[in-house]
Amino acid sequence: MPAGLDFVSCDVYNRGAIEVKVARQHYGHYLLPLLKPHQHVWLVPGLYGPNGTEGNATATEHNDAELVEKLSAHLAWARSDSRIAGFAAWHWGTLPPDFSPRSMTIGGGFYPRTLELVAQIVANASTAALKTEDAPAGSRGRPHARCDVTHGPFAAVGDGKHDDTEAIRSALKQCDSVLLPVGKRFLTGKPQDHCWSLSCVFI
């Protein structure tokens, strides 16, 4: 793994919790053994549903339940492995009807239970708004359980101009969960490598 990379990911999509089982095999074989001490991985939950089911309440409920099962399994996995930095889910919005494959057209934002679970994850992470000196000790042997990357000793700017690589890297080393406040844009590494905090969730 090139030392210049801080985060890497692998897209593996399937139905429900099966996706996590397959993804763990891929990550365990291709990514995790190659990580250097400063490197972490992103999980990429496939939050989507098939085109043409928007008006079908039964299909919507079924798809929603599958996505909740999938995201819950991803969350459990993330919390069990300190090498996992967070989620970069694919995808939220609805894609054009001619998008291929059609089974991935409707974004996770269409499904109410999925959105509710995402809101719970964000709400839990929002307690990271505590300054790091007030945060309790973490469960992974780190000094803090939850941290806001813009607070305390980290002082990430998140204005889309400053390089926040070291701030985020430091927070990941010291905290179990790292909050990137909504609406910020964090640059890491090269200017083209960035994370919108609306779509990237550190766990």
Question: How would you describe what is shown here?
Answer:
This protein is an alpha/beta fold and 203 residues long. The chain folds into two domains: 120 residues, no CATH class; 73 residues, no CATH class. Helices cover 31% and strands 19% of the residues. It is built from four helices and eleven strands. A four-stranded mixed β-sheet has the order 1-2-4-11, with helices on one face. The protein has a three-stranded mixed β-sheet with strand order 7-9-10, with no helix packed on it. Strands 3-5 form a two-stranded antiparallel sheet. Helix 2 packs parallel to helix 3. The chain is globular.
What descriptors fit this protein?
single chain; 203 residues; alpha/beta; 4 helices
Q: Please report which band the strand proportion falls in: under 5%, 5-15%, 15-25%, 25-35%, 35-45% or over 45%.
A: 15-25%
Uncertain runs with pLDDT below 50, 5 residues or more?
127-136, 191-199
Adjacency order of strands in the biggest sheet: 1-2-4-11
N-to-C SSE string, H for helix and E for strand: EHEEHEEHEEHEEEE
Mean pLDDT over the full residue set: 81
Shape: globular
State the share of residues found in helices, binned by percent: 25-40%
Give the helix/strand class. Answer: alpha/beta
Total E-strand runs:
11
| Major beta-sheet overview | 4 strands, mixed
**How many distinct helices?**
4
Distance between the termini: 22 Å
Rg from alpha-carbon coordinates: 17 Å
Number of domains: 2
